[in-house]
Amino acid sequence: MELLGLVLVGLILVETTFLTVRKLQERRLKVARGSMLLDTSAIMDGRIVDVAKSGIITAEIIVPRSVVAEMQLLADKADSEKRARARKGLENVRELQRMETVGVTIINDGRVGSGGVDERLLELAKNYDASICTTDYNLNKVAKVVGATVVNVNELAQVLRAQYLPGEVIELQLTGSGANRDQAVGYLSDGTMVVVENAKNLIGQKINAEIVRSLQTEAGRMMFAEKVKSSAPAFKPKPAAVFHSDQLKKRRKFIPNDKFRNNPPKPLSNEEKMVQLANQSRPNNLH
Question: For residue 139, what pLDDT band results from cuts at 50, 70 and 90?
């Protein structure tokens, strides 16, 4: 009996210790159920800041310390592009913290294991029934496999963007060439790629394009269009008539001095005045 009592006491102590450690861990992490965990890609992308400003996000935003450390590491890199994006990401965190419309908490999630920051985010999302906000394609796929809730900023942008239907005409700046030799590529304000057929010779210009069809892919939406042909023919000005001085003399009949006084020459027409002005402005070597 004494042995059984000791076993029961030991089990109670183990369970109590386990529950105490778990409660302390939850208190240390301060992760509320249903919170939204931000990963590095979503923070550096920056669009989550605009979404938060709109007031759509009602859940508490959680930024793990491991994510901040990863951005700090990228900010110290020699790669100028990654360094600039990481520094912008740290500024985005500060901007989120200053907002009154959302609650933002930085949690100390401890040392990251061999799985990296992504593995830690998946673990936190599973333990606290939280969602993961990301733009990382691979993390998005893995989270869906393990059953974690994912808020993909790219998919959110796809849903909220304006829909263009076939037949609509848009104004588009062509910036590059497409896959085929006659294609040109432009981008809408939301980043949607638009491929225009038979427009490679117009790269660098702004044209009117008619949407033909759209294609939804896992990486985003792509649209295909055709350049709009102008219905009015191009205006071609008629070349101005230019006469040589000897030709003008032949056109005018010689009038003697006495007759010139009684019969003054007929005033030049507007066309003749323009011809005369054009002849006076011509270089001598062209006569």
Answer: very high
Which two structure tokens, joined as six digits, stand for 133? 């906000």
Long-range contacts, 246-250 (Cβ 8 Å, 24+) = 248/275, 248/276, 248/279
Looking at residue 62, what is its pLDDT?
93
Type of residue at 240: A
Euclidean distance between CA atoms 93 and 47, whole angstroms: 12
pLDDT of residue 230: 65
Among residues 273, 267, 284, 266, which one has the least CA distance to residue 240? 273
Q: Is the pLDDT of residue 180 over 90?
A: no
Angle, helices 80-98/65-75, rounded to nearest 10 degrees: 140
Burial class (CB in 10 A: 0-12, 13-18, 19+), 38: buried
Contacts of 82 (CB under 8 A, 6+ apart): 74
CA distance 185 to 207: 11
- In this structure, the strands spanning 184-187 and 193-197 are antiparallel
CA-based Rg of the chain, rounded to a whole angstrom? Answer: 37
Q: How far is CA 183 from CA 206, 230, 248, in A?
A: 15, 19, 54
pTM for the structure as a whole: 0.52
